[in-house]
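Subject: for your reference before the review

Hello V.,

The reviewers asked for a structural picture of the protein, and I figured it would be easier to keep everything in one thread rather than splitting it across files. Below is the amino acid sequence we used in the manuscript, unchanged from the supplementary table.
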Amino acid sequence: MEKSFMINCREEVLNLTKELVSIRSIVNTDGESVIAHSLYQMVSSYPYFQDNPGNVVIEKTIDDERERYNVMAYVKGTKSNSNRTVIIMGHMDTVGVDDFNQQEDYAFKPDEWMDFLKNEDIPDEVRNQLNPNEWLFGRGALDMKSGVASNLFLLKFFSEHPDKLDGNLVFIAECDEEDGSHGILSALNTLKRWKVDYGFDYSAAINADFVAPLYEGDPNRYIYKGTVGKLLPAFYIAGEETHVGAPFKGFDPNLIAAELTRQISYNPELCNPALGEYTLPPVALKQMDLKTEYTVQTALGAYVYYNFLIHSWTPKEALAILKEHAEIAFQHALELFENRYRAFCKLSGEAYNGIQWKPRVITYEEMEIMLVKAHGSDYVDSMNQFKQDLLRDDSLDTRMYALKVVEEAWKWMEDKNPTIILFYSSLYYPRIELSGKTFNEQVLSEALDEAVDVIQSQYKQPIMVKNFFPFISDMSFMSLSDDEAAIQAVKDNNPAWGTKHYVDYDLIRDINVPVINIGPYGMDGHKKLERVEIDYSVELVPNMTKLVIEKVLSHNK
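And here is what came back from the structure prediction:
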């Protein structure tokens, strides 16, 4: 395929990107609603949707504390009677702009921002990229408004040429990807409704989130099949309180928390391998004790949670692995305590009285079983009421809500010896592995390989296909590789489940479409110098995505 056969889309996608960047659509602000309504008006103005107004919708998210919307549309192909359907998707929201400081307004004005940066003290590499013909700077330019612009172009193109579709095309522009994914989780309901009403056979999904270098000097532009999964394992650590005048009569939970972080953070043993690729190691996202004011008592409890990525481990397997590492950390903390206690006694001449504690690590599910057995309906009724009352506190996010539930449950434990309680405290982003086990997975992989070969001939930098998108994204909610037991472990070990937090994983399993990511290329996503490479992102990405769409739809079972 010669370059002359490619769609001429560069200027239109670039202008769309600038237009989208100009809309301040920071997550959890009114801007999410503003950009959704702007997109809805834009899509509704296309001739196809003027003739078929029911084919585009703007829908408020479900069970969401904020008012925000998704924009969804579909084009029915006329090339054949096939119901095979490809989904193209991307998020409209961005992270905030606090990092821009006094230059905040420039974040949404790419051309002016690039002119301003010419006089700033910035790295030489970045200065060399201040070429408006090659790079575009600004909040969301990379993550991921250039990807949404690419999808908008393709939606418009196929709406003008439905005769080129051997099936159907569904477009999703979702909100809230940068926080709680209310957008895509709500969109699943519409996808299911369209599946029932129109017989859509979802065959592939193509996300357009950004890609970036994976190491210094990395020349590759990456395409990803499937995606990493993310868990947020949390640990409530109950110590034994003591006056600081008698420190060895108690056990400070901060010491256990410190050893836990030393055991888990950056530990390569917790990098999950699959298909020759490894996840990044976990790292602590919060570590704190639970004292609310100054006293000369040691803390009763501590709290820590970690970013934890998975490729092949299930949430149930991850719990077992993390429990083992927590037991190691607890043992290390006890050994350190004992050694220092002995050393102090030798130094001071005080008598060494030994220690009575042993490592104890239990999951939230195990604690629940123990407490129900010990206290029956009294415990169950009391905790249900506590959870409902706790919902009135709007200041608590899911993570802190879960902690409060665990703290309350701990009060019912008869054995108050120091303990680590392991639980999940936030949304589980499911892992997706494209192994080629299904017809649709095989077709999508083959279509992607063919498209990459075609586009590579038009581009000097290497385009590399990898097996797992390495960042958290809404791709996770398009398919489910986990079995029922794995998902049950998520439900049973999240104290917020069913009250503050709920995900319809059965709905994900019902859609269950293989997903890849073909997205814009750039650098410094989520940072002040966020920028996107124009040639690849606004010209080659739309064309590559178009090829995959056409090839997937041309394969009938």
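For the response letter, the relevant points are probably these. The chain has a mean pLDDT of 96. The radius of gyration is 26 Å.

Happy to draft the paragraph if you're swamped.

O.
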